[in-house]
Amino acid sequence: MGVALATLLPFGVSVAQAGNAAAAFDGSGIDFWVDSAMGPIKSRVFRAADGNNSRVVYALDGMRARGDLNGWEAETNIIPALTNANINVVMPVGGPSSFYADWNTPSNFFGIDTASAGSAGSSTGSAMTGSSNYNETLGKVNTYKWESFLTQDLPNALAGRMGFSSHRNGVFGLSMGGSAALTLAAYHPDQFSYAGSYSGYLNISAPGMREAMRVAMLSAGGYNIDAMAPPWGPQWLRMDPFVFAPRLKANNTRLWIAAGSGLPSPQDATAPLDIIQGSPLEALALANTRAFQVRMMTLGAGNVTYDFPNVGVHNWHNWEAEVYRMIPDMSPNIG
Fold it and tell me: Please, are residues 196 and 330 in contact by the beta-carbon 8 Å criterion?
């Protein structure tokens, strides 16, 4: 299993960021810059249709998070669905391979800075306007501090400058962002009352998963997993949804947990590469997610909705459809 994961994941994370060649920039969004321990970080903010400040959701990207736009904006059309449901949407930009965690050190190999070699941003030409090396250097010349940013710097700035509530927010994400959404909700229950994970890494302490993630993070920007957290230490276990599942039950956090079957939909048939690369990876994500489901069931957790559609591979079509299914469940559980 470990060898299979290590072989498939680098290709799978490429599929996770596949989509339209041109970014689907949404002119209704606001560029929202906030200072942090990592330097200035950009988010894109979209206002709820009714103008409320109390209903807020954070949308987290995948492992190849790009430097100009969050993948949810670039590759899907979920923004109108959320804003028309009177939900304010916050989309952090950047952080490839970060798992939206607070890392121990900058990512390097044998003490050698790898920022000059480029990362996911440089390979896609997606560096942020006005900062050509944003995605290439973030987390390499400095230390990733994404959890602190998402739970302190960003909500404080949103509250101070836009009046947004920092309580009973929602958070959801795909792949890397899915497991990160659960982590944020587990340790910051006052901020996040709702969390959604699509095709997430929900059992990262399973045999072979760390080395599979190591290969994936090398592929998605040349990041060193050992800079994030040491193997099998408290920090690593703190990031594992399978391990911290009791927190999610105790917090009574409303959860939406989903993974596709790995079988392509008719829409996927128009993208053969998605099937070749995305089907086996989604099958593995499904197995990972099912393990988390069993864990929560053994705890007697009744605060979870599971969605395992009959079709769906590891791509944006699958994840976009999942958001539409999730909105009616999320809407009454935030704000």
Answer: yes
Task: Output the CA torsion sign for 265, 204, 61, 91.
Answer: positive
pLDDT at 281 (0 to 100): 76
pLDDT digits (tens, 9 = 90+) for 42-52: 999 999 999 99
Q: What's the gap between Cα 81 and its chain centre?
A: 19
Burial of 331 (0-12, 13-18, 19+ CB in 10 A): middle
Residue 18 has pLDDT above 70, yes or no: no
For residue 219 the two structure tokens come to 């592929």
Phi, psi of 197 (to 5 degrees): -125, 125
Q: Which residues contact 123 (CB under 8 A, 6 or more apart)?
A: none
Identify whether the C-beta of residue 259 lies closer than 8 Å to the C-beta of residue 289. yes
Cα separation, 157 vs 166, whole angstroms: 10
How far is CA 21 from its chain centroid?
21
| Cβ(295)–Cβ(245) below 8 Å | yes
Query: How many other C-beta atoms can be found within 10 angstroms of the C-beta atom of residue 40?
Result: 11
Coil, strand or helix at 248: helix
C-alpha–C-alpha distance, residues 251 and 193, integer Å = 8
Helices (H), the chain: 2-16, 71-75, 78-84, 120-124, 134-137, 146-148, 154-162, 176-187, 209-219, 225-228, 234-238, 241-251, 272-298, 316-330
Mean pLDDT of 111-128: 43
Active site residues: 175, 282, 314
What are the tens digits of pLDDT across the range 260-295?
877 777 777 666 776 777 777 787 788 889 999 999
Nearest to 293 by CA among 308, 311, 282: 308
Q: Are 282 and 15 in contact (CB under 8 A)?
A: no
The torsion angle over the Cα atoms of residues 22, 23, 24 and 26, rounded to 10 degrees, is -140
